[in-house]
Design the sequence.
């Protein structure tokens, strides 16, 4: 096998090789990006905890549940603890930059063991009414530190003269699992409710969802059924689901977006395949004379075939590896920029293998046509050809 | 006066190397088609809202609210608001052309499985007067005021369970009968409409979400908005229906522009590289011909221009192919959640002239950029050296 020839062939047209590798890098990067986006959209579902249930209104996501449901749910067998959750939907600097939830200060952290406070003191959340804890992504994006105050413009809960709400950062958390987003702020639900009660703010009084932490060994399905039956004839019917099912309803809201992203990926793949095929056909045509010499010297058809396939594969391996590298390299800035849409933008090893696999696949398929031709060349004809 | 080599020479040369030309053209076409597809999606979504909005209809929301789902008025205060606003037009009987509406997105099962949020709207008779001829019943009849009857937008029966005429649809615990299907351009096509008081009772929501009113001709809605913003009795945020509906598309439109821009530029880079490769090989194969052109007196700059022209034609062909690839998308129904309201809206891709124009211009630009280096290299060749090549 004339290995030197392989290298020389690739180096024969450095500009062309460079451009082909360049387009491969770009394409593989894009494919990794799209794949990561699809994985990230599902991440909340796949990483959901199995020991938590979500109680929400059976009528609408936007209907609150009555306050007295909390103690009623806590009385049910198999329920360890119940934590309130209320979507706040406020704006920071006139935009929805991160999610905010009102929660029970004394229950939230024990219901969510994946949330670890890494700065400040979690106890301050219970000590101060205006306290909030924020995720690391949000802290990094806006430079928030423990001790800072965050002004939030209410949209559902507004204050007179449209004044902002002000929350004090007492702790910063990180999450060991993607189902708790690190671009989120948790504040005290009782602060919200007291302000509404005092008339210093307007908005609906209630609880968005109740999160149930199951007792050890409790049967989630049975508890969910009991909760639903308990409120079947109460003022609001409820729908109790696993955390995964709850997250899935948001994914299913995306409708055809995942299909759309996949078809874009198909377009990218198709375009890059044509580009590599184009390069390899050009290369194959130019090699005609060289291949004639090779065959005249006694090298077999298999060598001619392999030579072109390997050239194609080598270009695609380099392009693929650099493309995956680029995706990995841009992970942090892209992840930070897209944190509202794709909370967990992480290029996993699965995605890297996926990107490399596609690049190698393109290499083989695009190399086939010229390789076939090379194998079938008659030395006499090949030698006669120009250039 | 520049003397250009005959441009037919460049065009013919594209056909001589047809396999390479074809691959490049399809490659550029695929790039352009992806961009055009995203733009067609955005156009379909945005026009659904902006086409429906009228300038002489005002929307009243609670100050601070960004959508009607967040807005809330106590019924009595909304009535004070309507009575106290002289800008509101009157009907034949001297009654204000204004309607309170309640709005809530409710869980509904989709026909193809899964759940989605469907907006239900409780309206007063004036809502129909304000809608005018744009609102039509296309099947069955309109609901009787005060009854447990509803009508559904025409996008719903084929997407959502229990939305055929004659079927029963349950809100909370109250059953309603679907008596008609309506056509009303815009996001309303994905909504269920019924009597405001019946809906209010069934959903246990005494609060109105917004007030809708036709304003008298010549009313300056911005001035009205300024006045009511700090109104002592009932402060309200006022905007025209068009401004309101356009505002609802901002999040998704921005997202689609980012996605389109990102994919277009990144795939564009790959397409430029491919175009350059094709032109390089095309020019390499014509070294001798270029030598002859130079030897018979053509100047380098016109030669450069003629190769750039060739590259632009390559891009143009790619643009045409891309447009052909994306055309079948036109009118294809799709649906997504509008994240301003968290409700599902149905709409169709729209391959508008703007989309096609953008696609073709983008394709030509890709060809142009891809042709610059090869064309410059061609023009700067030494004629003697070029002619020596066999």
Sequence:
């Amino acid at each position: 096998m004339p290995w030197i020839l392989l290298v020389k062939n690739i180096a024969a047209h450095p500009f062309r090789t460079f451009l082909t590798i360049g387009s491969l890098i770009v394409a593989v990067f894009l494919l990794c990006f799209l794949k990561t986006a699809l994985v990230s959209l599902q991440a909340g579902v796949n990483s959901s905890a199995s020991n938590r249930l979500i109680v929400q209104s059976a009528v609408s996501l936007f209907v609150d549940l009555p306050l007295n449901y909390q103690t009623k749910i806590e009385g049910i067998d198999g329920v360890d603890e119940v934590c309130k959750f209320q979507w706040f939907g406020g704006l920071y600097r006139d935009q929805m930059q991160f999610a905010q939830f009102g929660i029970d200060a004394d229950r939230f952290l024990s219901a969510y063991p994946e949330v670890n406070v890494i700065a400040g003191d979690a106890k301050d959340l219970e000590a101060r009414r205006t306290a909030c804890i924020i995720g690391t992504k949000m802290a990094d994006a806006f430079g928030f530190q423990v001790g800072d105050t965050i002004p939030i413009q209410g949209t559902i809960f507004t204050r007179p003269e449209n004044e902002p709400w002000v929350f004090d950062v007492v702790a910063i958390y990180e999450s060991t699992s993607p189902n708790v987003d690190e671009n989120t702020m948790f504040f005290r639900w009782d602060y919200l409710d007291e302000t509404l009660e005092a008339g210093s703010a307007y908005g609906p009084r209630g609880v968005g969802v109740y999160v149930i932490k199951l007792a050890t060994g409790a049967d989630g399905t049975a508890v969910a059924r009991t909760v639903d039956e308990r409120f079947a004839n109460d003022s609001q019917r409820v729908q109790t689901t696993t955390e995964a099912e709850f997250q899935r309803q948001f994914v299913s809201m995306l409708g055809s977006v995942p299909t759309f992203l996949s078809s874009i990926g198909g377009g990218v793949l198709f375009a890059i395949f044509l580009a590599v095929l184009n390069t390899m056909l050009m290369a194959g045509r130019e090699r005609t004379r060289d291949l004639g010499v090779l065959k005249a010297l006694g090298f077999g058809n298999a060598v001619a075939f392999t030579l072109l396939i390997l050239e194609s594969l080598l270009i695609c391996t380099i392009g693929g590896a650099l493309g995956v590298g680029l995706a990995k390299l841009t992970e942090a800035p892209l992840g930070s920029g897209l944190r509202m849409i794709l909370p967990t933008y992480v290029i996993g090893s699965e995605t890297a293998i996926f990107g490399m696999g596609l690049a190698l696949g393109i290499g083989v398929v695009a190399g086939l046509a010229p390789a076939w031709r090379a194998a079938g060349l008659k030395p006499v004809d090949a030698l006669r050809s120009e250039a | 006066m520049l003397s250009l080599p005959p441009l037919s020479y460049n065009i013919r040369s594209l056909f001589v190397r047809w396999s390479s030309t074809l691959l490049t053209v399809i490659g550029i076409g695929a790039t352009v088609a992806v961009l055009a597809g995203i733009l067609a999606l955005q156009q379909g979504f945005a026009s659904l809202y902006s086409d429906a909005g009228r300038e002489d209809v005002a929307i009243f929301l609670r100050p601070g609210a960004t959508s009607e789902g967040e807005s809330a008025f106590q019924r009595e205060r909304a009535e004070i608001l309507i009575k106290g606003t002289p800008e509101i037009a009157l009907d034949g009987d001297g009654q204000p052309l204004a309607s309170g509406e309640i709005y809530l997105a409710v869980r509904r099962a989709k026909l193809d499985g899964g759940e989605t949020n469907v907006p239900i709207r409780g309206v007063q008779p004036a809502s129909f007067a304000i809608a005018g001829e744009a609102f039509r019943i296309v099947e069955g009849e309109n609901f009787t005021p005060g009854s447990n009857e509803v009508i559904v937008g025409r996008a719903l029966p084929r997407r959502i369970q229990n939305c055929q005429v004659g079927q029963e649809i349950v809100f909370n615990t109250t059953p309603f009968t679907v008596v008609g299907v309506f056509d009303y351009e815009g996001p309303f096509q994905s909504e269920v409409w019924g009597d405001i008081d019946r809906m209010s009772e069934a959903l246990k929501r005494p609060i109105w979400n917004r007030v809708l009113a036709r304003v008298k001709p010549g009313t300056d809605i911005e001035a009205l908005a300024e006045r009511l913003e700090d109104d002592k009795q009932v402060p309200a945020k006022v905007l025209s229906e068009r401004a309101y509906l356009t505002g609802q598309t901002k999040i998704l439109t921005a997202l689609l522009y980012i996605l389109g821009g990102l994919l277009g530029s990144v795939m564009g880079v790959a397409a430029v590289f491919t175009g350059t490769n094709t032109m390089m090989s095309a020019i390499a194969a014509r070294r001798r011909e270029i030598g002859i052109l130079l030897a018979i007196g053509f100047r380098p700059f016109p030669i450069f221009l003629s190769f750039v022209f060739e590259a632009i034609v390559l891009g143009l062909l790619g643009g045409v192919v891309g447009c052909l690839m994306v055309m079948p998308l036109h009118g294809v129904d799709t649906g997504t959640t509008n994240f301003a309201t968290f409700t599902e809206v149905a709409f169709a891709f729209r391959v508008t002239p703007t989309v096609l124009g953008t696609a073709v211009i983008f394709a030509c630009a890709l060809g142009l950029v891809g042709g610059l280096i090869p064309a410059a290299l061609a023009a700067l060749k030494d004629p003697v050296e070029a002619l020596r090549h066999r």
Remarks:
- The first strand of chain B starts at residue 57 and ends at 61.
